Structure formats: C-alpha cells, structure tokens
Amino acid sequence: MDVIVAKRAGFCPGVKRAIDKVLELEASGNTPVYTIGPLIHNKQVTQQLAEKKITSIDKPQQAADKNGVLVIRAHGITPEFQREVESCGMRVVDATCPLVKHAQNVIAQYAAKGYQTVIVGDSEHAEVIGLMGYTQGKGMVVAGPEEARHLPHFEKVNIVSQTTQKESVFFETAEEIKKHADICQVSNTICQPTKERQKETIELAKSADLVIVVGGKHSANTARLALLCKALTSAVQHVETETELDEKLIRNAKKIFITAGASTPSWVIDRVAERVKQLRTG
Ligand code: SF4
C-alpha cells in the first residue's frame, strides 16, 4: 500500500503507436526497417530494436538496402525533410504522432495568416526542430519566461508549446510574450496524455517521501518529469533500471511513488516496482 505506481507511467499513445508500427513491419517479412532517428530515447528499447535489426539512420541515403521501409518517428520532421524522405524511392511509413501533427497544423495555419511563431520548448529536441519547419521561416524557440524577456516586438505572434512542456512554464512564458506583441494567439499544444501524466504526478508526488522516476537519462520528457517532482518533494531518484535504486532511501521512506517518462517500457517499470517491493520486505 505504501508503494504507488502511476497509472499513466510509461509509453504514451504516440510512442506506443510508433513502436507497434515498427514491430509489425519487422514481423511481416524480410524487409529491413529503418527509422529516421532513434524511435525513442530509451537504451533498453533501443537495444531490443537493434537485436531485431531495426536500424536508426539520419537520412534515407544511409539505408544500406533500398528495398527496406523508412519509418518517420512519433516526433515528426520538417515538411522539407518529409518531401525528401518521400521522394527517395523507398517505402515510407509515417508514424508521426497525431498530436504532434495537430501542433504542426496549428503553426502552419497561423503562419499562413502572417503570424510569427514562438515555440516554448527545447530548441534541440527533434519534435521542436520539426515544428520549426512549419513556421515559414518566422519561428523562434524559448525555453521559458526568462528567455522570453529578451524577445523582440511582434505585430502578430502565435505562441505554441512543445507537446511535452510543463503547463505552468508554458503559461508563464505566454504571459511574458504577450507584453511583446500587438496581437497574440496562445495555442496550448501540450498533448492530453502529457497533461494527464503531469496532473497525476502533482497529486501523488506531493504526499510521497520518495519519488522514483524511471526512464532514459537522455529522455527529455523523463528529465522534465523528474524536475516537476523535485519541485514537489525533496527526495527524487531518476533511474534507468532497478540496478540504480538507492536501497537506503527506499528502506527509510514511508510512502514511495513510482512514475516514468513517455518513452519507458512497462517491463522496465515493473522490474523497478518489483525490486522496490522486495527491498521493503527483505
Ligand atoms: S508525448 Fe504526446 S504528442 Fe508526444 S508522442 Fe506522446 S502522445 Fe504524442
């Protein structure tokens, strides 16, 4: 009873959909499967995919077998790159998450009406790089309100968020950007699964003595989830697998909350939860 695992821990629908598509393609025949960039930022899943000969490449020219299938990952890509991929002569499967597509459409729609775009997010993240491609060359990225203070004046600006952005950061940043614009459109494109995960985390992390966040150390959404937890409770451990668990912290905590990023597979979460329970009873 004193170890709670988040109901919304692990793969989000967009990531699950992309992985299912890739595994389906791999199972359906002898065709090699290539993904444009790593499907997700999780070492354990990446290893499993590599064992199945599902290869991550940066561009179509790197595919060793041109009879293979190219898969666009859940993060999406720029329209220019999409055209390049689709005209390379290989079979292409687009696994862009529909909720990322929604953000791309919102940007394209306002850019066509002459709006500049400010994306609240991580400028180096693949999703944000893809989103920038829809701004008609009039896009900027800010990480939060502090960076927004240095923005120029806009006649018309559309403020959009990376789909995994923390809601409070998005709204605080939007408030700052409004001071720089005559006409301002606030487009909250944080996806519903992220909102639900954040809501659940806020509710449960507050009352826990220890929060364990499971997921890749290079996963942006897992790192953001860990940061959110650190603002709510003093003891937070971010682990990739059960081997990194801090036994002393676990034995001393009365109530433990386990959550995970959108790129963490359920079997990794289960192993962490199992080990935590063993340590509590052992
Ligand atoms: S985090 Fe949200 S938008 Fe991103 S892939 Fe998952 S469901 Fe889609």
Describe this structure as you would to a colleague.
With 282 residues, the protein is an alpha/beta fold. The chain has helices spanning 13-27, 43-51, 79-86, 98-112, 126-132, 145-148, 167-178, 192-205, 220-230, 247-252, 266-281; strands at 3-5, 33-36, 54-57, 69-72, 91-94, 116-120, 139-142, 154-161, 181-187, 210-214, 236-239, 256-260. The chain folds into three domains: 3-9 and 193-281, Cobalt-precorrin-4 Transmethylase, domain 1 (3-Layer(aba) Sandwich), CATH 3.40.1010; 13-97, Rossmann fold (3-Layer(aba) Sandwich), CATH 3.40.50; 99-190, 3-Layer(aba) Sandwich (Cobalt-precorrin-4 Transmethylase, domain 1), CATH 3.40.1010. The strands form three sheets. A four-stranded parallel β-sheet has the order 1-12-10-11, sandwiched between helices. The model has no long low-confidence stretch (mean pLDDT 94). Iron/sulfur cluster is lined by residues 12-15, 74, 97, 99-100, 163-164, 191, 193-194, 262.
